[in-house]
């Protein structure tokens, strides 16, 4: 597996009557781990969906030097919901699903499923059904299912947001280990500042919406595994927290001013 570069230039995304994001410019290196961070409603997931090819955009959006014109096998998405698996299929059948659609022979599908279930530490659960697994285990199956298709870009939309703190911490370390093993390009949406500092090569902080843009891009030049209690990590978290707090205050001030004007 290998990653692909992502190029975004002057990207706008509109819905009827409203601009979601405006003039987004971002260049992501192949194999980089990027976190999109920001307050609720700032367009993080919208940008992720644009990279996935789920929505139309205005501007330049390329993956691996090719224009994004819709979903493709070069990109895989891990959703937030732990219910995204097919409940009538076993774990290994879920992981094999995309390969089956491609016409990959059954023996090859099984080998690939076993490889990625081992990578996420779930080879022992191959014959179980999603209903027999915890939420954290189901998310690991989702990750294995995406990786089994060998995408060049993995897109993760707050994948651990619905999980308890202990499970979330385990899966954060798991994702970091998988990224180190595959060097696939990861774009990870989160509103959790600590999570972003723990995982990312760079943290892209968004302004508050509407017509959200990029507020700042913060390199995290720290070796893995990271300890969030280290002084450098603490300072990064403090800086990012202040950036987001100031942005939220600005947005709330604008909203209040608008209400007064009305």
TrEMBL record:
Gene3D superfamilies: P-loop containing nucleotide triphosphate hydrolases. Residues 6-233 form the ABC transporter domain. SUPFAM superfamilies: P-loop containing nucleoside triphosphate hydrolases. InterPro entries: AAA+_ATPase, ABC_transporter-like_ATP-bd, ABC_transporter-like_CS, ABC_transporter_ATP-bind, P-loop_NTPase. The keyword Nucleotide-binding applies. One of its GO terms (molecular function) is ATP binding. PROSITE patterns: ABC_TRANSPORTER_1 (PS00211), ABC_TRANSPORTER_2 (PS50893). CDD domains: ABC_NrtD_SsuB_transporters. The lineage of its organism: Bacteria, Pseudomonadati, Pseudomonadota, Alphaproteobacteria, Hyphomicrobiales. Keywords: ATP-binding, Nucleotide-binding, Transport. It comes from the Bacteria. Belongs to the ABC transporter superfamily. Coiled coil: none annotated. It holds the Pfam family ABC_tran. This is NitT/TauT family transport system ATP-binding protein.
């Amino acid at each position: 597996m290998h990653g692909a570069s992502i190029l975004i230039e002057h990207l706008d995304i509109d819905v009827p009557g409203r601009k979601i994001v405006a003039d987004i410019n971002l260049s992501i290196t192949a194999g980089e781990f990027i976190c999109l961070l920001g307050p609720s409603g700032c367009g993080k997931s919208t940008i992720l969906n644009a990279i996935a090819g789920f929505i139309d955009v205005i501007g330049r959006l390329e993956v691996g030097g090719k224009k994004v014109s819709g979903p493709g096998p070069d990109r895989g998405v891990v959703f937030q919901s732990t219910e995204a698996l097919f409940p009538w299929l076993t774990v290994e059948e879920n992981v094999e699903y995309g390969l089956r659609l491609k016409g990959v022979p059954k023996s090859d599908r099984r080998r690939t499923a076993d490889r990625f279930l081992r990578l996420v530490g779930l080879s022992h659960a191959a014959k179980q059904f999603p209903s027999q697994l915890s939420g954290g285990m189901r998310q690991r199956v989702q990750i294995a299912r995406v990786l089994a298709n060998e995408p060049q870009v993995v897109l993760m939309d707050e994948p651990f947001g619905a999980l308890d703190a202990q499970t979330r911490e385990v899966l954060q370390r798991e994702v970091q280990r998988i990224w180190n093993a595959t060097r696939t390009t990861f774009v990870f949406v989160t509103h959790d500042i600590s999570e972003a500092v723990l995982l990312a090569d760079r943290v892209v902080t968004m302004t508050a919406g509407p017509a959200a843009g990029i507020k700042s891009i913060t390199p995290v030049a720290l070796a893995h595994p990271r300890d969030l209690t280290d002084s450098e990590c603490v300072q990064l978290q403090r800086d990012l927290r202040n950036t987001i707090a100031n942005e939220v205050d600005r947005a709330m001030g604008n909203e209040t001013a608008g209400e007064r004007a009305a």
